[in-house]
Amino acid sequence: MSIKIEPFKNNIGASIACDLKSIKADEVVKTKEALNNYGFVCFRNQNLDPGEYLDFAKLLGEIKDYPMLKDLEGHKGITVVERKEKDKGKSYGEGWHTDSSYLSKTPRYTCLMGKIVEKDQGQTLFASQFASYEALDQKIKDKIKNLIGVFSSAGPISETRLERESERGTGKAKDFISEHPIVRTVKNKKALYLSPGHTIAIKNLDEKNSKNLLKFLFNHQTKKEFQMSFSWEKNTIVIWDNYSIIHSATPFSGRRLMHRIIIDA
Ligand SMILES: [Fe+2]
User: Fold this and answer.
1) pLDDT classification of 108: cutoffs 50, 70, 90
2) What is the mean pLDDT of residues 51-76?
3) Residue-wise pLDDT tens digits, 152-199
4) Which of 31, 62, 231, 253 is deepest in the core (most CB within 10 A)?
5) What's the pLDDT score for residue 11?
6) Residue 262 forms beta bridges with which residues?
7) Mean pLDDT value across residues 193-210
8) For ion ligand 1, residues whose CB falls within 5 Å
């Protein structure tokens, strides 16, 4: 029997029913197709230990190091994203962004698995950048088609990482800066590639024009109509395509612990 893929509203994200302990090669292909089509996918009730989780992630591509945080002991490639009861301030990743866009080779997929999730402990918001690109006026599409963005790890979202770095940091975190085209093509479909938490300028525009254009595009790409709010549960795994979706954690209190893997594909 084939896996069942159910897209969410407006085709932003999809739920896949599949036991990831025994996923087959053709089901991996379908999962990747769903990522191309819907930007993110979720799998509920996956009771995988860290080794099994890594085995599954390897089927999607090459597991990458995350330069900012230490790996889970004994499981290279998994980083722990934890918010403790006592933590104050913003949650890790709170604010719109796409992961590690400040690296020269940006990671394609991010996987996140809920390990400790109490009831009502926050959502992740996703915004489809296929949809946001599609909704732009042709004039703007023409204007931005060859523009290059400047992406920095010291952008506004970095403040949410500092608390985790003080506990689990590698100590070698430096500021990374990279340039990327702000329109990306994923399987013949165009997507806006901008990360409000990291994009600090548009290359070859003066400061005023760069600021104004970014303000307009950040506001556009995060409109409600392109969003889907996803609720976490323990043993849920979500994978998103950093080339076609942006995301933001939402505020919550109490403890939550996730295992994160980033993948090149
Ligand atoms: Fe993120």
Assistant:
1) very high
2) 92
3) 998 888 776 666 666 666 665 678 999 999 999 999 999 999 999 999
4) 31
5) 95
6) 64, 110
7) 96
8) 93, 99
Report how far ligand 1's centroid is from the alpha carbon of 90 (Å). Answer: 13
Q: Cα-flanking dihedrals φ and ψ of residue 45, to 5°? A: 55, 50
Q: Give me the chain's average pLDDT, please.
A: 92
Residue 230: both structure tokens together: 């996803």
CA of 58 from ligand 1 middle (Å) equals: 20
The CA 213 to ligand 1 mean position distance, Å, reads: 23
Distance CA 250, CA 125 (A): 7
Q: How far is residue 171's CA from residue 65's CA, in Å, rounded to a whole number? A: 14
Q: For the chain, give the percent of residues with pLDDT over 70.
A: 94
Query: For residues 139 and 151, what is the distance between their CA atoms, to the nearest angstrom?
Result: 24
List the beta bridge partners of residue 112: 238, 260
168 CA → ligand 1 middle, Å: 17
Q: Which of 54, 36, 43 is nearest to 232 (CA)?
A: 43
* Distance separating alpha carbons of residues 46 and 24, to the nearest angstrom: 15
Q: Which two tokens stand for residue 160?
A: 């949410």
Catalogue all structural domains in the chain, each as residue range(s) with its CATH number: 4-264 (3.60.130.10)
CA of 25 from ligand 1 middle (Å) equals: 28
